[in-house]
Amino acid sequence: MRPDGYRRIAVNVARIYFTTTVCGIWNNACSLQARLKEDTLILATMKVTSTVLAAAFLLLVEASSSFMKRDQEVCAGQVVISETFIGENSDVKLAHVFCPENEQSTSALSARQIVDVCDDPCATTCFPPAGPAPVVDDCDVIVGAMRFFSQNVNDDFTIGTGTNNTVVLTYSTCQTFYVNQDAVEQSYCFSDWATILDFVAPHCQSNTPGGLCVADDGQWFIQVQKTD
Fold first, then answer.
1. CA 180/CA 187 separation, integer angstroms
2. Average of per-residue pLDDT across 84-92
3. What angle do CA 128, 133, 137 make, to 5 degrees?
4. How many CA atoms lie within 13 A of 146 on its CB side?
5. Which segments of 2-152 does DSSP mark as H helices, in order?
6. For the chain, what are the domain ranges?
7. Phi (first) and psi of residue 68, to 5 degrees
């Protein structure tokens, strides 16, 4: 055999002897090394599991929040400018909302003074059958709150120009809102609004989700609908 062949055999024998001897003498050290590897693997597995659970929890929270809607929106992306509660029991929400999608440029608005549309006639139309209507008793609570407010606080209110200004009243299953479709500010009265709601709510039932009353000149309308 060639000298380099003897040399390779000697090296391999030395490696086997060294490994066997070291693990034989320091058996505890070898066992400790194996346990450390196992612990490292377990920790890595726990870390991955924790990450997966955290991600699943976040997805669950996001999914749940998408179903949490306090009130039905009267327009896409509405922004609540102000809100308060009216009525003898302060249980009807009165809100002023802004509709970004309907925003008009101020250059297109007329400089005329406020137009009083109180007592102006409107035509009632019920929505096509598409689900349950608001509970009439809930709408009656709003009617009572508006009449209480008109008699004890103020009957008139001013609403800004354009359809991006909307006044909304909500109680339980019933919601009604007033929209100014004119290019000027309008003044309207809660007593008239109460009369319209008192008519539309009981007449737009029979599996319809509500109805609306549109001014004869088309410059404003009042809608009644069921909340989500």
1. 10
2. 97
3. 145
4. 28
5. 3-25, 27-65, 136-152
6. 3-65, 79-226
7. -95, 90
The pLDDT score that the predictor gives to residue 163 is 60
Q: What is the rounded CA–CA span in Å between residue 129 and residue 79?
A: 29
Closest by CA position to 96, among listed 82, 76, 79: 82
CA triple 147-86-156, angle to 5 deg: 50
Q: What is the C-alpha radius of gyration for the chain, rounded to an integer number of angstroms?
A: 37
**pLDDT confidence bin for 19, thresholds 50/70/90:** very low
Q: Which two tokens stand for residue 139?
A: 């709408």
Q: Structure pTM?
A: 0.64
* Beta strands 115-116; 186-189: pairing state: parallel
Question: Rounded CA gap, 102 and 179, in Å?
Answer: 11
Containing 189, the helix (H) or strand (E) segment is: strand 186-189
The size of the chain, in residues, is 228
For the chain, the distance separating the N- and C-terminal CA atoms, rounded to the nearest angstrom, is: 93
